[in-house]
């Protein structure tokens, strides 16, 4: 039997696929794909026959089927799930065994079999993989019943989303403004479905110039004009020149003035200090705490993989958490094997799934390219940490470089002859778009977060606040507003290039990112991203040019100083007003956001930011809001300015009429004389 440690190791690499959300994909296809809906309709007829047998021959309908799924969910919810890897392993094997026995008993055991298989899914490292196994090995009626339970669980989870998010310590909550009034509107039907109109509301009183909450960006990217080697590609902070390049204070008095602690007798060697390498984490647990991507094999002796026996049957494969199918052939000599195609294959073979093939010796041409590669920046900060492969991105610290590599740059680096990345970036640049780059980064961050969650759980570490969220960032994204866009030819091309770019690190992404989903993601970014503004003294942000201009929509109340754009989970729910009561600022001139009050706010007040420059006139604001966000603003400021404009127009017209009357009177008097 496979050990608990093996399950933990498998979880570290296979959870990435699970993060994409098979059930979200299933539900999305159900709502948008006509062919898929027709297939579901045929499948539902089969399921309804099964339900009819289960409930004693009563006529089965879709509603009966949904009720059955909810009933089964309520039943299994009372069962406690195990915590430790060893207990999960035993629980999983027991649930699968019971499910198989119940299936063999016939249709009368299908409902309980579905419960057992559903519970096995709850503890399996890679639910997506297990769903695929169920689809091939269980009776069709049982599989559909399991799927119904999963779909109902997703709906229940979505229904309580706004009850638990945002966290209470953020001092805000999301409410549907259509439900704020207790009384039913006149003429509104009781069962009428009303589109939610959500906003962000304060849960306590705040004075002017107070910070309500802070939050990290989900994903960010620099504007082309700021990619000059002076701003961090990850956190977007301006990168100061290295202290080694600054003039050394000539006297002790100068040192004191500059806030240095050096005495004439105790000058430290700053060069040696800056070059001192950070200590390597000693254990895998330390590596997880530091957010590194090291695998357990680096710190634990997992034995000689070549001596491990290959599972001979499909049942053995399931026990070991592998994706081996019944038809898989015997493994040949390792030297003759093809490059692993999925994470599961990589885990089994003990190889790496990084964009560069492990063990492959670089060609002569590759060596020459690496030797000739030079930084493309002409004015790069001397304190910048540069990617030593592509030489096209810089970071403010080694931590930012490592975080970026783990999350997305390992897939998106144009170095090491990565033609897919080069073509992808060239197309995005040609179209003057950042949305494709943000989408690629989003999937990288999604996979990285879910993988690190599983790693922490596997080794028994408590999750920090950034990982405790029960919702994946995909589930958060689904709850945001978005613009409905019409896909273009370039969208189709970029979507294909995105799949090619990310397929090595995110198996199954080509099936997951359909045309509709890509357009939806782009619409989410178009509506919800903010321009990140750097206001640091002495920092010069290059102006946009025809070559660096991008067509992406971003919320920005300032017309200058923008270095990039970012997506935030909470702040995306802020609504627009031309007379806002809060503003978004950026902590330390990074992409970390702080929502600060402009005026006093009482508990229960809705929070508003301005999506456009507040210094613009009403006509320009309305044009931008309508064209970019499809908003017809009717805030108090717009109403007041509309009234004032109308009054001014009336006064001007009356004045013109008075002038005409006077002129007419003068002409009449002249003619009489």
Automatic annotation (TrEMBL):
Compositionally biased spans, kind Basic and acidic residues: 255-279, 297-308, 317-337, 355-377
| One Gene Ontology CC term in the entry | nucleus
Where does the sequence pass through the membrane?
Answer: 6-28
Q: Which Pfam family is one of those matched by this entry?
A: SET
Topology within the bilayer = Single-pass membrane protein
What GO biological process terms does the UniProt entry carry, in alphabetical order? intracellular protein transport; protein targeting
Task: Enumerate the UniProt keywords alphabetically.
Answer: Membrane, Mitochondrion, Mitochondrion outer membrane, Receptor, Transmembrane, Transmembrane helix
SUPFAM superfamilies for this protein? HIT/MYND zinc finger-like, Mitochondrial import receptor subunit Tom20, SET domain
Where are the annotated segments for Disordered? 242-377, 646-673
Q: Which gene encodes it?
A: TOM20
Write the protein's name: Mitochondrial import receptor subunit tom20
Q: What is the lineage of its organism?
A: Eukaryota, Fungi, Fungi incertae sedis, Zoopagomycota, Kickxellomycotina
């Amino acid at each position: 039997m496979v050990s608990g440690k093996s399950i933990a190791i498998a979880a570290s690499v296979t959870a990435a696929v699970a993060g994409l959300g098979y059930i979200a994909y299933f539900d999305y296809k159900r709502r948008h794909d006509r062919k898929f809906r027709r297939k579901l309709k045929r499948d539902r007829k089969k399921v309804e026959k099964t339900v009819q047998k289960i409930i004693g021959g009563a006529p089965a309908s879709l509603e009966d089927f949904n009720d059955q799924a909810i009933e089964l969910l309520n039943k299994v919810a009372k069962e406690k799930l195990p915590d430790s890897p060893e207990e999960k392993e035993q629980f999983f094997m027991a649930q699968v065994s019971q499910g198989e026995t119940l299936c063999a008993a016939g249709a009368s055991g299908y409902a309980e079999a579905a419960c057992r298989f559903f519970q096995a899914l709850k503890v399996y490292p890679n639910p997506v993989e297990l769903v695929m196994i169920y689809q091939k090995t269980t009776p069709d009626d049982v599989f559909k019943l399991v799927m119904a339970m999963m779909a109902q669980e997703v709906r229940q989870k979505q229904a309580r989303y706004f009850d638990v998010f945002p966290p209470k310590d953020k001092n805000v909550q999301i409410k549907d403004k259509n439900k704020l009034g207790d009384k039913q509107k006149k003429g509104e039907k009781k069962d009428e479905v009303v589109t939610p109109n959500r906003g962000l509301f304060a849960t306590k009183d705040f004075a002017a110039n107070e910070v309500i909450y802070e939050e990290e960006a989900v994903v960010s990217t620099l504007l082309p004009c700021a990619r000059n080697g002076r701003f961090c590609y990850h956190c977007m902070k301006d990168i100061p020149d290295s202290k080694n390049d600054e003039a050394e204070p000539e006297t002790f008095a100068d040192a004191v003035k500059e806030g240095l602690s050096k005495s004439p007798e105790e000058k430290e060697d700053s060069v040696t200090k800056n070059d001192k390498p950070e200590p390597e984490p000693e254990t895998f647990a330390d590596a997880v705490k530091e957010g590194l991507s090291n695998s357990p094999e680096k710190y634990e002796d997992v034995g000689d993989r070549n001596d491990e026996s290959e599972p001979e049957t499909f049942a053995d494969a399931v026990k070991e958490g592998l994706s081996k199918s019944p038809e898989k052939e015997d493994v040949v000599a390792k030297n003759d094997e093809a490059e692993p195609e999925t994470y599961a294959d990589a885990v089994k073979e003990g190889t790496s799934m990084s964009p560069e093939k492990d063990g492959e010796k670089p060609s002569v041409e590759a060596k020459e390219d690496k030797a000739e590669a030079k930084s493309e920046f002409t004015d790069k900060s001397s304190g910048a940490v540069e990617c030593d492969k592509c030489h096209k991105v810089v970071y403010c610290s080694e931590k930012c470089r490592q975080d970026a590599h783990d999350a997305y740059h390992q897939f998106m680096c144009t170095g090491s002859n990565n033609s897919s990345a080069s073509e992808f970036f060239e197309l995005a640049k040609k179209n003057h778009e950042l949305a494709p780059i943000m989408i690629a980064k989003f999937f990288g961050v999604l996979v990285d977060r879910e993988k690190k969650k599983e790693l922490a759980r596997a080794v028994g570490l408590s999750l920090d606040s950034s990982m405790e969220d029960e919702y994946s960032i995909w589930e958060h994204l689904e709850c945001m507003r978005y613009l409905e866009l019409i896909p273009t030819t370039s969208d189709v091309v970029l979507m294909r290039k995105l799949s090619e770019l990310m397929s090595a690190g995110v198996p199954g992404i080509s099936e997951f990112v359909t045309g509709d989903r890509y357009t939806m993601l782009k619409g989410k970014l178009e509506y919800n991203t903010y321009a990140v503004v750097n206001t640091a003294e002495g920092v010069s942000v290059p102006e946009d040019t025809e070559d660096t201009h991008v067509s992406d929509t971003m919320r920005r109340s300032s017309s200058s100083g923008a270095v990039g754009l970012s997506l935030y989970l909470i702040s995306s729910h802020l609504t627009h007003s031309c007379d806002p009561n809060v503003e978004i600022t950026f902590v330390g001139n990074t992409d970390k956001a702080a929502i600060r009050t402009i005026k006093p706010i009482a508990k229960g007040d809705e929070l508003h930011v301005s999506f456009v420059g507040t210094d613009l006139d009403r006509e320009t604001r309305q044009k931008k809001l309508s064209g970019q966000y499809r908003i017809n603003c009717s805030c108090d400021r717009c109403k007041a300015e509309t009234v004032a404009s109308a009054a001014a127009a009336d006064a001007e017209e009356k004045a013109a009429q008075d002038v005409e009357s006077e002129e007419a009177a003068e002409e009449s008097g002249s003619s009489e004389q």
